[in-house]
TrEMBL record:
SMART domains: HTH_LUXR. It comes from the Bacteria. It comes from Streptomyces ipomoeae 91-03. Residues 12-40 have a biased composition (Low complexity). Pfam families: GerE. Keywords: DNA-binding. The lineage of its organism: Bacteria, Bacillati, Actinomycetota, Actinomycetes, Kitasatosporales. GO terms for molecular function: DNA binding. Residues 1-53 are annotated as: Disordered. CDD domains: LuxR_C_like (cd06170). Residues 1-11 have a biased composition (Basic residues). SUPFAM superfamilies: C-terminal effector domain of the bipartite response regulators (SSF46894). This is Transcriptional regulator, LuxR family. Residues 198-263 form the HTH luxR-type domain.
Amino acid sequence: MRSPRHVRTSKHGSAQHSSSQHGSAQHSSSQHGSAQHGSSEYGLSQPVGSASATPSRGLSVALACAQGAWPHHDWPAPDDPYVRRVLHLTPPYRGLQDSGADVVVLRCEDPSVSFAELLKAMGDMSAPVIVVTPRRDSEAVVEAFRGGAGYLVEGDYCTCMLSSAVMAATVGHTYLSPTACAALRDAAQGMPGNGQATEQLRALLSPRERQIMELLSTGLGAQEIGLRLTLSEKTVRNNLSNIYAKLDVRGSTEAVLRWLGATSAVRV
């Protein structure tokens, strides 16, 4: 899939833009995103009235994919409320560690290969990753989720969802498209011998904590869970801290896997 219509890519792979004073795309340059590294970069102006949760400077996204493999032909829109800058990097993703990206979006055919390649290129880089792929099988989803990555199945998301996933990733929300979420649940249900242990583990939680875990396992973050349950975000986070202690886990990704039965139930 080609890059968005408002992005004009030159023969050398660098992106160019027209600009105006009212929300048009603006060209930006980078010392690390040169064409010789197989990368191109473009910037988006920040629209007036953006969501309050959006950083005032907007987000910088590293898009890791082959030429012509853009995740969605209309993404990002010139007036995207979250994304300010996109740096396109082709394999082997040279310059990724120096990109200054807030989030990395990996568009690939086979995440079992490309995700490992991306992590190698990231090195010590701590930016969250979102995988966009046509693969919808449980094995691929679980592998990416265990690695802390969000997962969007092609044909199962819109441009708004992709931008929301990018924004959510910056606050620790592991975003799953509906098909990916279903695949993760199928993987948990298909694991032999975990049913009774998982039920025993769930019994450790209070009714409210179980409600929170059910919502967390669908990919919602603390703020969204608070809105669903009419709780403050702080209260949700306090409950999550208690849940992590009871489940003997270190964070939300491990908690969801434990909750769904996709990992060993209780560590002794």
